[in-house]
Amino acid sequence: MMVAHAFDKEKNFTLSGDFRPETIPSDATRVTITNISTPIIPGFAFNHLTRCTEMRIISCNFTSTDPLAWWGMLLLHTLHIDTVGGLETNNFSFGFMPSLSLLSMHKTSAGELKRYLFWETKRLRSVDFSFNKISVIHPYASVVTFELEELHLHHNEIEELQHFAFANQTSLQTLTLNHNNISKIYRLAFYTLTSLQRLNLEHNNMKTIESQIWVHLISLKYLQLNNNQLKTLPADAFAGLVNLEHLTLTQNCISVVESYAFNSLDALKDVQQEPNSDHSNARYASSSLQSLQLQNQNISTIQRETFAGLTALNHLDIGQNDLEIIKSNTFADLSVLRSLGLSFNKITALYKDSFLGLQGLAVLDLKSNQIKMIESGAFLGLYSLTVLHLQDNKLTKLEPGTFAGVNNHIFSLDMSKNNLQTMRKAAFDDKFQNLFFLSAEGNAITIIEDGTFNSMSNLTVLRLGNNRLNTLPEIHGNGTCIASSKLYKYVLVASELA
Q1: Domains in the chain and their CATH numbers?
Q2: What is the pLDDT of residues 138-176, one digit of tens each?
């Protein structure tokens, strides 16, 4: 039984039940077709809908459509097809929709993108074929859609990207290929994608990064490669990405990062004009990369050359790896780095000059390592440091000079869950006058030397719970001492202690 909803002010019309397209008013502008059991859309089914600008086909049993079904839909700019299990892309002739701008097909039987699929659809701006069964993208599949800006192919079954898979897409800015089975990308797969800014390849089966596969992506800013099976980042793995700002590599199996892996090659800026050129001798250049995420890998060694060329890097996270030592000058070239994540590694000690060169660093995260010793001078050069995480390590004492090099910008210091037994005044100097938050909870502290906190004139929160204190030291400041040891199970406000 056919159900037809009356027009509203927008002249929307919904057809469900029996498929009788001739009952759709010719002046309908937005048409929704849903819950149709008829298997075929016949030719010229919609030729009277000359004013229709948007059509949605949802939860129907169509298995095929005559290419001429769309004849006459000259003003259609949006076509959305969802949960129509029997339809494939070759059932359509998109050329009969010359105004088509937005196209989406989800949960259909689409299995491939054939050559010249979008012939004569020169106004397409966005195509979304996600959540289908696409396994093959034929070269030149979208060769005539010169104005395409977004192409979404995530959650499909694509296994490889062939040469010229996205040929002539010079306007494409966003390409999502995540949640596929991609294991191989041919060198010219991204040829002519000179305007692409976002590329998502996460949750695939990439085991290696082939040489020079990125060289045509001269405008790329965001690259997501997390949740693949990468084991090694070879030298120049990201060559050509001269404008890359954000790179995500989390949840891989990376154990080796070769020297110069993150270098860009300035000489490759014009490579799109020479698809068969050899650029192996191009010179190194500084990268535009601002954010690099390498957490949750198997990386055991890093060195200065690992980050060569990353002169614009602001955020670096190497957490959840197997690092045991930070060598002197490892980060010496990262002068504008603002945050460094080294949590959940196996670092046992911090030696002098471990962080030399990081004069702009504001946040240093070293929590959940195995640090037993901090050598005097380990923090030298950290003039801008405001937040330092040292919780959940194995520190037993703080020597004079432990925090040497830290300037008076330090705002928060967390040393909870270590094995500290004492806190001495000599470990803290006047560099902590702006300290707001200090935590030493969950240690084995029995003694806090009088005067330890005297220089901390702005201390507001002091956490000393779960220690072995018998007495609290004299505290000066405008803050709060939260003590929940066996002896002190109450909150002491500084004004009460004065």
Answers
A1: 1-109 (3.80.10.10), 323-498 (3.80.10.10)
A2: 886 655 556 889 999 999 999 999 999 888 889 999 999
